[in-house]
Amino acid sequence: MAASVTNLTPNETRPEARRLTGAQLIWETLVKEGVRVVFGYPGGAIMPAYDALPQYPIRHILVRHEQGAAHMADGYARASGRVGVAVATSGPGATNLVTGIANAMMDSIPIVCITGQVASTLIGSDAFQETDITGITLPITKHNFLVSRAEDIAPTLRQAFYIASSGRPGPVLVDITKDAQNAAIDYVDDGAPVRLPGYRPERSPVPEELERAIELIRKAKRPIVFCGHGVVKANATPLLLEFVHKTGIPVAQTLLGLGGFPATHPSSLGMMGMHGEAWVNTAIQEADLIIALGMRFDDRVTGNLKTYAPNAKKIHVELDPAEINKNVKVDLPLLGDVREILRLLLPHVEKLDIAEWLAHIEELKGDSAVRDIQVLPDNGRLFAAHVIHDLWRYTEGKALVVTDVGQHQMWEAQYYKHDHPRKLVTSGGLGTMGFALPAAMGARLACPDDEIWVVAGDGGFQMTACELATCAQENIKVNIAIINNGYLGMVRQWQEFFYGGRYVATPIKSPDFVKLAEAHGLSGIRVTRREEVREAVERARANAETTIIDFRVEQEDAVYPMVPAGADLNAMIRRPLPEGVKHNPIYETGED
Amino acid sequence: MPSPQHPILRTFVAYVEDRPGVLNRIASLFRRRGYNIVSLNVGRTHEAGISRMTFRVEADEDTARRIEANLYKLVNVLSVEDITDKPSVSRDLALIKVSVGPDKRAEVLQLCEVFRARAVDVGPRDLIVEITGTQDKIDGLVAILEPFGIAEMVQTGTVAMTRGPKGQAATTMHQPPALRGVDAA
Ligand SMILES: Cc1ncc(C[n+]2csc(CCOP(=O)(O)OP(=O)(O)O)c2C)c(N)n1
Ligand SMILES: [Mg+2]
Question: What pLDDT, on a 0 to 100 scale, did the predictor assign at position A3?
């Protein structure tokens, strides 16, 4: 009975088989996954794929180093919430991706890296440019695949996108042999759902746990909400706002949570941790309830674990069970998507009677000198804090800022107030110098309407400055603020505080960044005095091309406050005050 | 009673997809997170494409739960269960080559009898003894045979199975461990 063999009704027909090469199938699948741009660099083992690329509506950005491709995919993903894609050849191309993959892994960023591999017949023979990239990236990917048959390319790539973007996101690498790219098969797109029997990314809290959370919240006298990266990734900001409006609980942010709750909201306390606000860290130590949303109690956030938040019950809202009780023992884990859990909690929470607590935090603020913009000598010279503050002012707080790693990153976090999610892109977990420029370029392609600013140090910028050529070739416009202090500043600061002021290998000489920009056909501006900041920012914004501003800032400034690594969270090093100046409350009015 | 914070030897059973590299992923996870594997055994099951692992680790209760949770994050891992506190049967297998000639052979075989071990190969100057059982039992036999001269020995990792009518089908155990807070009522 032939008719019963298929489930097709008479009008339906099977999708027709088409003869496609593995190379075509790569792009075919990417197009179906919604990919419009990839960042990559060609080479022998990926040449069949590149040869087929012009047949598909995908823009290719030719990077100058594959690390840049991975960071661009990462920046693209962070800014948009979509999966970013990087492409590289085998061997050195693939190994150059490694830092970018590790960076995406540490911050749970969904990227898919596609690498060419030598022909399957040569694998294991130490063939030219053969490298075991699935072995190398095993501990730094959420998952990876080696594909050696054309038939497996489309299903594997679909799995890769699904794994990268679902649950706790992360990087996935797909290594595809050259013969698989070259082989032609009869391909039928059956649209079958991805089948991964061992992969179950969803989690949901048990009703009793929710009840207990509601109980703990109701009883709290000194509660704080922690807004982590998970809030941003789950697009949970509107629900968090609702939660805060209902309960009145104040919110502290992690570095990657900045923007997840508006910085200028009256209930926003600011950043916690090593370079967090003094009053936030003090409040955490005094709190009786912490509601941690999508964060992992990193050591940069907790300081000494033994003395961390000793009085607080801790509710940990988290998607990944492996994070529960990893660093901090929590009283109540709520497993699941942050947005979903907020949605479940919302109907059951109400205004808390915490006026005393809020008043106390106000007092702590008043005693704090972290907002030391005012006490910096106004000697006409440039302080990084002033530069960031002015940048915030002149861009009306609306820019998408991508930072590198170092002192400037912390000043950005302290002084650029992010009121919207996905408007700060920064390397948190891995702390990867060289991240900013390529990540900003990825963000540019994800968000063509945003004003994009790179905030980088003179050291880190040089690690991936080669991508300026990519900006020029691909007409990618970003604004670049180099906080040029002549030092690997963050390391210098540690040397100043903890290594007797011995500045070993931290003074760094840089090229003339203005000329460097010009050499690429881009623009450069030098700023040495505070009164020049505004005009420079405005010129950079107005320029059609990528523009570097070389801010020559005070060389030996330090980021305050600082909790020394491993110290108690409220044992902060504070900026020494000039004679006669008392710790005074700083209310930023835009006039500072 | 060992306290939950005290590391004890724990036994886990996991079902994994039978694919190249899966063992490597698991080993890499243990290495990276610093979990100390005491023994590990992998083999096929009656279900095509599915392997079963038994592994033993020194871990306190919290670490044990995180081991489970981390294993669940591996895409090729179908299910994991900590069977330490469940009624179960666990066995090791050892082959021991004893250097004995005809004069002492009978004596050795008699001792083996006591341990329910058996000779699986006999040569003019040696014999190979096979024993299955718990680690204790194997250790006991080794101690007894030592004076006769052990030429070589090999041992598998522990394999384990819980008692009771219900099998642990790879496809029915889906959920990662129930996680509890420190003071959960
Ligand atoms: C790839 C990499 N290498 C080394 C470090 C260690 N490190 C952290 S911050 C820093 C100094 C950064 O200097 P710069 O880029 O000039 O920024 P600044 O701190 O001066 O603002 C260094 C070397 C790192 N984070 N990443
Ligand atoms: Mg510097």
Answer: 41
